[in-house]
Amino acid sequence: MIPFVFIAFIVLTVISACVVLWSNNVLYAAFSLLLTFFGIAALYVLVGADFIAITQLLVYVGGILVLLLFGVMLTNQNGNKENGKNDIIGTNTNRFIGFAVALGLFSLLFYAFAKTNFIDIQSNLFESIESFSTTQNIGVLLMTDFVLPFEVSGVLLMATLIGAAYLSSKTKV
């Protein structure tokens, strides 16, 4: 059952990513990107990387994609005004270059996929998903062994936010 679900999420992710690439409507591309992010998070869950899956949902879906959708919806003023529609239509000018890069990456990934020995990996993969959770181990490590780098990165991110707020303010102190 799990390999069927895995293949279903792969198909969902690839199809929605293709819609992102070939859609001329920015809003449709953003909603397809939502499906792509959910598909990738589901793939992370199926391979046992639950912390990365939750991070994917919180950061990309919860932050970046919502910001992108609000940006598209709030700035939808210069769109196509034919027949009362107000759509943002993008033009794809570098399709050949994008296709060549995608084909190169696909061939590299296919080569790595062909050379990998999946017999050893597949035997214990699906049995160990239910019994192993990475979230607790990462939390314990962040609060014990890596507490100083964790706190320093928090202070650095706070300084970045304060600097961004200062640079974007109209009144400089």
UniProtKB/TrEMBL annotation:
Native species: Arcicella lustrica
Protein name: NADH-quinone oxidoreductase subunit J
Recorded topology in the membrane: Multi-pass membrane protein
Localisation: Cell membrane
Family membership noted in the UniProt record: Belongs to the complex I subunit 6 family.
InterPro entries: NADH_UbQ/plastoQ_OxRdtase_su6, Nuo/plastoQ_OxRdtase_6_NuoJ
Enzyme class: translocase
TM spans (from-to): 6-22, 27-47, 53-75, 96-114, 146-167
Keyword Translocase attributed: no
Pfam families documented for this protein: Oxidored_q3 (PF00499)
Keywords: Cell membrane, Membrane, NAD, Oxidoreductase, Quinone, Transmembrane, Transmembrane helix
Reactions listed under catalytic activity: a quinone + NADH + 5 H(+)(in) = a quinol + NAD(+) + 4 H(+)(out)
